[in-house]
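Moderator note: this is an archived Q&A kept for reference. The question asked for a predicted structure of one protein chain; the sequence and the answer are reproduced below.
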Amino acid sequence: MSEFKSDNRLFSIKVADGAIKVFLTVYPFKEKGVEITVNDILKFLKSKKIEFGIKEDAISVALNKVIQENITVENILIAEGVNAIDGEDGKVEFLVEINKQVKPEVKDNGKIDYYNVSILENVEGKQILAKLIDPTPGKPGKNVYKEPIAPIPGKPCSLPVGENTKISGKDNKLLISEIGGNVVYQGGFLSVKSCYIVEDDIDFSVGNITYKGSVAVKGNVKSGFRLNVDGNLEIGGTVEDAVINTNGNVLIKGGFVGSGRGIINSKGCVTIGFCRNQTIIAEEVKILREAIDCSIFAKNSVEVKGGRLSIAGGQITAGKIIEVETLGSRSELFTEVEVGIDYSNRQSLLNIKKEMNESAKALNKIEKELHTLNEFKREKMGDQSKFAKMHEDITSQREELKKKIEKLNEMNAVALKRLTVNKDAKVVVNRSVYPGVVIRIGENVMHIVEEHYDKVFFFSNEEDDIKMT
């Protein structure tokens, strides 16, 4: 701070805050027979090279107060410069959520959906994840001496390049993902992980998962939850009545056990410790212990390694081979296995036939209604105009049903052509196959009525039937 006093010692100024502010102090001067004017103050300021930000009104007010009240007026702000505005540091603007929180969805009816929550932020390959905002230079200021004050420029920032991300854009200010997956922001780096790891169970704290990479669950998957995974799925514990869809392979180290509402639908291989009362649809299925009362559909093969008990109860279908240690049970539990057909084509055919049967029943009902209306018309009973309208409506429904049945017949013919039987398909039983087992290869059926040991069941072209050896 610098202080300057007038020659007559009746006023002084202080230059403070890095020459940004000037304060005036004026002592009573009237009794001294001296007159001090605004001009006197301005000349004094100029003599000290103070030329910027001068507040003449403030000087006038201060002098008037001294004259009127005959008092000392101190530290009146009479000049003020402009501070420099420092530049802002560069920063990263994230275009994805990096700290996604679990937020249960409130439905229109007020109910809260605790299942459909997610902590995942999924991205596509080549998606922009973040962009770099340049630092600003700031704005210069000016002190009371009319000297410029340089701002402090903002510091540059760098993009948080992590795993499977890269810098892009013509000015290298974009961060993009190299793969589809899950965004992870950790240690100041933004990565895209192809594998998402769940440290505990899939339950209400995690919610349903839809993920574009692979997923590893270290705990269990509780009933009612859904996992939709583009990659592979590994589960360290047991899966209850959950629904799993994956384009990759599935490994469940524990079991797949529930009340029959659990479904695994995989385009790869499903490997499970054991399975009870659930449904699996996959290219291949491998079960390390037993499969009890299960519905298993494999495009290629089913392999069950259980010793004393492998497959018992349920329905097992495979396109090429079913290989087990034991098939059925000593209690002669009904167990059906089928090889040689593509289950998806078989299911399509079954759906068409079901719809054909329902349509035929509906057509039969309509024909009976038309017959009754015709009887009323012939006997001239009731409101004939009303019966005529009903007859017209039902006749229209009949024509629509006939068209639908015709279309279903065409679809059925196509489905039958697709349902080719792999005559090389077989069922391999390394130990016992028990009574109560039904083996199908195409349209051929074999009922097991007594226990057999170490057998291979196959289709014999010579006998046009299933044989065992």
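Archived answer notes: The two ends are 109 Å apart (CA to CA).
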